[in-house]
Amino acid sequence: MVKINGEQLNIAGKTLAEYLADTAYNPRRIAVERNGEIVPKARYGETVLQDGDSIEVVNFVGGG
Amino acid sequence: MNNDTLIIGGHEFHSRFILGSGKYSLKLIKAAVEDAGAELITLAVRRANTREQENILDYIPEGVTLLPNTSGARTAEEAVRIARLARELGCGDFVKIEIMRDSKYLLPDNQETIKATEILAREGFVVMPYMYPDLNVARDLVNAGAATIMPLASPIGSNKGLATREFIQILVDEINLPIIVDAGIGRPSQACEAMEMGVAAVMANTALATAGDLPLMAAAFRQAIEAGRKAYLSGLGRVLSRGASASDPLTGFLRD
C-alpha cells in the first residue's frame, strides 16, 4: 500500500506519473514529496511507488 | 516619491502594502491589487485535493510577486520542508517563515524561526521571517541571512493595531533591514502610524477581508500607507514637552 495525502491506496508498482495521470490533480499546480524528499517534476516518470511509501501532493491555497 | 522603492532580496517594489490571502476571495485579491496597489501576496501550501479545480493562482494577476508562507509548521524542520515544496511549485524564491507551536494565540516561535531562516537563506531563499518583536532575535535573524524582519503588531486576525509599538520602533531604529509590520493591523490609521515610525511596509488581510466595503477600505489603506511614508520621509514636526509655541507672529496689532 502507498499512503497518498494520508489515504492508503493499492498502487505500489505504478510510477508517480502513471498514478497522477489517473487522477484529477492539476499537474501544473502541484508539488510532490516522497518520504520527506521532493520529487522533481522531471522524475515523475521514473519514480516507481513502493509498498510503504508516504507521498504528499500539495498546492498553494490562500494564507497569510 | 517615485524613486522611493522598497527592495527585498534584489526585487524592487513600488507598493508598501502586502496582502495576506488567508481569507481570500476573488473580490479581496482584486481590491488588494487594484485599489490597495499590492505587489506582494502571501500564499500557504496545503495538501492538494482532486475535487477543487480552481486554484488561488488563477486569481492572482501577472506581475504580482508571490510570497509563500510556512504556516502549519511547528518546527524549523517542518518550515524548511514547506519552503522547499513552495519553491518546487515554481513561483520564485520568496518565503515568509511562520512557525507556531501555540494554537490559541498563534504566536511565532522565535527560536525555531532563527533556525529555519539560517537553513533557507543558505539555500538561496529570500527569507522574510514573521516574529515576535525582540531586538536580540532580530539581530540573530539578520545574522542568519533574513531579507526583512516581520514583527507582529498584535495577535493575528485581531485588528487591534500596534500593541507592540515601542518594540517595533526599536527594530526600526536598530536593524538595517526593511521592517515589515505583519499581523494585527486593523485600520488605515494604524498602518499610517506604523509607516510614520519608519516601518518599510505593512501587511494585512483581516482588516480588508472583514471590512464593510472592500475596495473602499483597500483604497483607504493605500492612502494611509502613502501618507505615513511621506510623513516619515519628510521628518515629523517636533513635540513640545510642555507649554505652547505660537505659530502666528506676536508683533503688535490692536494694542501696543
- Radius of gyration computed on alpha carbons of chain A: 11 Å
Low-confidence stretches of chain A: none
Name the chain pair whose interface involves the most residues: A-B, 23 and 34 residues
Please report the distance between the alpha carbons of the first and last residues of chain B. 47 Å
Tell me how many strands of chain B there are.
10
Q: Can you identify the CATH class of chain A? A: Alpha Beta
Number of helices of chain B: 8
User: What oligomeric arrangement do these chains adopt?
Assistant: heterodimer
Radius of gyration of chain B: 20 Å
- The end-to-end span of chain A amounts to 35 Å
| Beta-strand percent range of chain B | 15-25%
Main sheet strand line-up of chain B: 5-4-3-10-9
The amount of beta strand of chain A, in percent, is 25-35%
The name of the CATH superfamily of chain A reads Beta-grasp domain
Proportion of helical residues of chain A: under 10%
Number of helices of chain A: 1
Query: What's the mean pLDDT score of chain B?
Result: 91
What is the level-2 CATH architecture name of chain A?
Roll
Secondary-structure element order of chain A, N to C: EEHEEE
Structure, explained:
The complex is a heterodimer of chains A (64) and B (256). The termini of chain A are far apart. Chain A has 64 residues and is mostly beta strands. Chain A has a five-stranded mixed beta sheet with strand order 2-1-5-3-4, with no helix packed on it. The mean pLDDT of chain A is 90. Chain A is built from one helix and five strands. Chain B has 256 residues and is an alpha/beta fold. Helices cover 35% and strands 15% of the residues of chain B. The longest helix of chain B is centred in the last third of the chain and has 21 residues. The chains are: A mainly beta (64), B alpha/beta (256). At the A-B interface, strand 5 of A face strand 4 and helix 2 of B.
